[in-house]
Amino acid sequence: MTEKKSFRIAVTGKGGVGKTTITGLILKYLIRKGLKPVLVIDADPSINLPDLVGVNFDDSIGGIRENGFDGKDLSVSKSDFFQYKAECAISECDDFDLLVMGRPEGPGCYCFVNNILRNVLDTISRNYRFVLMDCEAGLEHLSRRTTRDIDLLVLVVDGSRKSFLTAKTIVDLAGSLKTRIGRVCLVLNGSRGTDGKVTESWLNDLREFSDFEITVPNDPEVASFETEKKSILRIPDDSTAYKAMSEGMDKILPLKNNENSGIYRVPAKPEHA
Ligand SMILES: Nc1ncnc2c1ncn2[C@@H]1O[C@H](COP(=O)(O)OP(=O)(O)OP(=O)(O)O)[C@@H](O)[C@H]1O
Ligand SMILES: [Mg+2]
Asked: What's the Cα-to-Cα distance from 153 to each of 8, 181, 195, 237, 261, rounded to whole Å?
């Protein structure tokens, strides 16, 4: 059996439900708990994560193709070349590394970006204890199997019916692909767009598929950090959104096994009442 060293977390859900915000809060949690090294991947072509965590990036995978492999240097294979470029595109920040997938320049090139992402997950990601991905609104990455072998799928929903439908489609699709999903965590974020109530029957539909549930309140501090362009990583530990995420993550990640070696495992699936 091959040993996989990194614990992979993919954050997904409908557009605008708070995926990037939740990714930022999970990143803050991992850093606060000393769970390093962490590779954060912005796998959403609209590239919002660097701004949220206050990082300037030079290169994205989508941009690589333009000045890409010309085949002249026959001593390097195309895949080695792109692997090298992917490594060069990683921004090294104080507490984590960041890789931005970005948007391919030409038409029909998403499989190229996704192939590189798959390559990164198979190779570079092994150097990290945690790999955290902010995935796009649709099912692009799952359907192209680039989020295969996910230890924790974080499904973000707000109060809207559409967000529940999207989440349901994602888990349905994940079940029909070869993607191995370890655990699923449902995040009820903000309950914006409704009167604050979440319809119980929609929730129950998803509870069938989820192992953990975290309710993150609508937090004015999150909003003001965004408006003031402050990194979400600096949000106070007692901000209501961070507190909720942090308490939820404590239940998911077994901190007592907080040593630097070995595979990181989530606890056994809890019994549903
Ligand atoms: N818990 C929260 N409290 C207050 N504001 C929030 C909360 N979660 C998200 N927001 C705000 O909602 C907006 C959308 O959040 P975010 O960008 O994280 O969503 P997204 O799902 O990543 O969107 P997209 O699909 O466009 O990438 C942002 O302005 C963000 O600050
Ligand atoms: Mg986003």
From this structure: 8, 7, 27, 24, 23
